[in-house]
Amino acid sequence: QVQLVESGGGLVQPGGSLRLSCAASGFTFSTYTMNWYRQIPGKERELVAAITRTGRSTNYADSVKGRFAISRDNTKNTLYLQMNSLKPEDTAVYYCHVDRTPYWGQGTQVTVSS
Question: Which neighbouring-strand residues pair with 94?
Answer without folding.
Answer: 38, 108
